[in-house]
Amino acid sequence: xKENSEIDELPAKILKFIFREPSLALTLxxxxxxxxxxxxxxxxxxxxxxxVFQYATISDFIVAPFKDTIVFLFAIISILLSWLVFxxxxxxxxxxxKLTKIMWFGVEPGTSAYRNIYLSSLVFGFLxxxxxxxxxxxxxxxCRMLKSKENYAVEVLLHSxxxxxxxxxxxxxxxxxxSLLAYPENNNVMVVPLEGNVAAxxxxxxxxxxxxxxxxxx
Length: 218
Fold this sequence. Notes:
Blueprint: H1 2-8, H2 10-20, H3 22-46, H4 58-62, H5 64-67, H6 69-95, H7 97-103, H8 112-147, E1 153-158, E2 167-174, E3 178-182, E4 189-193, E5 198-203, H9 206-209
Antiparallel strand pairs: 1-2, 1-5, 2-3, 3-4
Helix pairs in contact: 2-3, 3-8, 6-7
């Protein structure tokens, strides 16, 4: 049952690693946060029909975890859920070994095959969970944006369309080099380079101002 013991001791080993190598653990944790932020950002912008990877820079993904507190909440809740699932799995193994064997396709607990299947299922389960949560987050944020358009309104003056004057948009997002806007009438999206085409941007609402558009007010 050595392999089973190794799985049971996994949380303790992770804690020991964190205390032994805090700098490396912090770096790895931040990388995980960046990946989560990338997935959530991709799902959200895809709901508007935008492939964010075409416009985002490395800097955009580095700061992605800080743009929305939901990313942090997701990470914290995920840690707690992972621990609960792990503890529940251990109790199931001990109380119902026959049922556990059936659940793991007849593989005997305590073998290397069991460990490999167990760890693989954890990785697959987390990826599926993250994908599902990112889709829920994207749908929620998209609907919230549509229901409260006035809270995310900005007015933009474009070099390419000076005759139109100030044009009102919904500010759906902000990248380092681009402003992502949508027409409030039909929700059509416009990706505007901040350098070159944007003469000025002024904020109509506090919510849009908090997104820190990099342009001058008039």
